[in-house]
Amino acid sequence: MIREASGYIAGENGLVVLIPPRAAVMLLRSGALDAILSRYPTDTEVFNSISALRHVATLYSSAPGTALGTTFGAMPEPERTLIYLSTTEAAERARVTDRGIRKAISRGTLKAERVGNRWQISTEELQQYITNR
């Protein structure tokens, strides 16, 4: 279902914009998400928003019948919702320093994804790292 532009505005006083998964895929493929992250590398709200867009785009892209240029298909419900943390947030949870987290990533003992110039660590990977330490 295609909405009018006003149909994508939500929240009190219209301060939230809803972005359909298909649009998130287009933003990801165009490189716009990386461009935004490189322009605002220290803005946590921007980082978390871009991470959410990447996650939805990835889920939608891998769903059968949802390729760009086709009609909208039903997006499957994810089995679990991944939550991503910065190195600082991961360090607080693991009770180590930020540098310790970055060293674990470079050693390969903690899996993380590079988004722009920041690391993105899933809570599942962090829990596995904490357990195996």
List keywords for this structure.
single chain; 133 residues; mainly alpha; Multidrug-efflux Transporter Regulator, Chain: A, Domain 2; 2 domains; three-stranded antiparallel sheet; two-stranded antiparallel sheet; 5 strands; elongated
Helix-strand makeup class: mainly alpha
What is the string of helix and strand elements?
EEHHHEHHEEH
Supply the number of helical segments: 6
Low-confidence runs of at least 5 consecutive residues: none
Global outline: elongated
Largest sheet descriptor: 3 strands, antiparallel
Number of domains: 2
Question: How many E-type strands?
Answer: 5
Mean pLDDT, nearest integer? 81
Strands ordered across the widest β-sheet: 3-5-4
Q: What is the CA–CA distance across the termini?
A: 48 Å
What portion of residues belong to β-strands?
5-15%
Helix content: 40-55%
Report the C-alpha radius of gyration, rounded: 17 Å
